[in-house]
Amino acid sequence: PIQEAKLIWRNGKLVPWAEATTHVLTHGLHYGSGVFEGMRAYDARRKGVAIFRNREHIERLLFSAKVYKINIDYSAEDLMAACREVVRENGLKSAYIRPIAYLGYGEMGPASQACPTDVVIAAFPWGAYLGEEGLANGIDVCVSSWRRPAPGTIPAGVKAAGNYLSSRLVSMEAKDRGFAEGIGLSHDGTVSEGAGENLFVVLRERIITPPAASSILAGITRDTVMTLARALGYEVVEQPIPREMLYAADELFFTGTAAEVTPVRSVDRIPVGTGARPVTKKIQSAFFGLFTGETEDKWGWLDPVE
Ligand code: PMP
């Protein structure tokens, strides 16, 4: 269950958690016409409670809204401030933040232009998505029988509510089969991403991740990890990954706001590499170091809520 906080930001005002409800004929509920973000606030020792890459998440939200012509009457600055406000006013020390903009109640039909847009931002505590155990020891995953949406269908690079039906199929199938998560293949059979995570392969000291054209959401954690890995001196390349490269990899890991940097220890019950994870460990410490202060935030990624 969700660990409830006190207040939710809705269309410019903070309202009690239980009152943040919507009509059953909300457009977004019927047609998936919502765009959202998932971001985290950390108790960053040096900066106090801070939102990680607030601007990039809000900019992606505005981009997603633009694609589906979901009008948002707030600027990026307004929405970033609202995210800080929700975390601050709920007194949260660390939080998962979920902004969503969806077409509300007013008219039926997928092409409706007459529905109002509701913009909502919730924040609540949420621990390691794939488990603390998974963060430390890696998780067991499978390749899904479900493909990710192909280019020219529902755009995978847009973070819209409807996309998560694909994630639901991939993830449910994996869990039913006893795995922690599933990896979706792209329309052409190359590796795409996890149900809610980007994927990285470490092979002979190179770090490889599928390009935007492989039906992925270009994750902000993915970008963070590419930046940190390059700063650590690694060669990072975006290139199509054939499925068998998953079984050849020395190391594999997932990235995502919820998943953070989670090692993958087996794919389809085939162990990844020797089980040693020197590169993943360095990347995990660089990543989590951003919040403890051990990694200098040279990029201005932390946005303090106070
Ligand atoms: N792919 C999908 C399908 C996702 O849902 C997410 C989580 N937002 C990611 C990748 C990772 O993106 P980010 O690092 O921006 O959270």
From TrEMBL:
Pfam families: Aminotran_4. GO terms for molecular function: L-isoleucine-2-oxoglutarate transaminase activity; L-leucine-2-oxoglutarate transaminase activity; L-valine-2-oxoglutarate transaminase activity. It is an enzyme of class 2 (transferase). It catalyses: L-valine + 2-oxoglutarate = 3-methyl-2-oxobutanoate + L-glutamate; L-leucine + 2-oxoglutarate = 4-methyl-2-oxopentanoate + L-glutamate; L-isoleucine + 2-oxoglutarate = (S)-3-methyl-2-oxopentanoate + L-glutamate. Gene3D superfamilies: 3.30.470.10, D-amino Acid Aminotransferase, subunit A, domain 2. Its cofactor is pyridoxal 5'-phosphate. The keyword Amino-acid biosynthesis applies. One of its GO terms (biological process) is L-leucine biosynthetic process. Pathway: Amino-acid biosynthesis; L-isoleucine biosynthesis; L-isoleucine from 2-oxobutanoate: step 4/4; Amino-acid biosynthesis; L-valine biosynthesis; L-valine from pyruvate: step 4/4; Amino-acid biosynthesis; L-leucine biosynthesis; L-leucine from 3-methyl-2-oxobutanoate: step 4/4. It comes from the Bacteria. Its EC number is 2.6.1.42. The keyword Ubl conjugation does not apply. Keywords: Amino-acid biosynthesis, Aminotransferase, Branched-chain amino acid biosynthesis, Pyridoxal phosphate, Transferase. InterPro entries: Aminotrans_IV, Aminotrans_IV_CS, Aminotransferase-like, B_amino_transI, BCAT-like_C, BCAT-like_N, BCAT_family, Class-IV_PLP-Dep_Aminotrnsfr. CDD domains: BCAT_beta_family (cd01557). One of its GO terms (cellular component) is cytosol. Acts on leucine, isoleucine and valine. Belongs to the class-IV pyridoxal-phosphate-dependent aminotransferase family. This is Branched-chain-amino-acid aminotransferase.
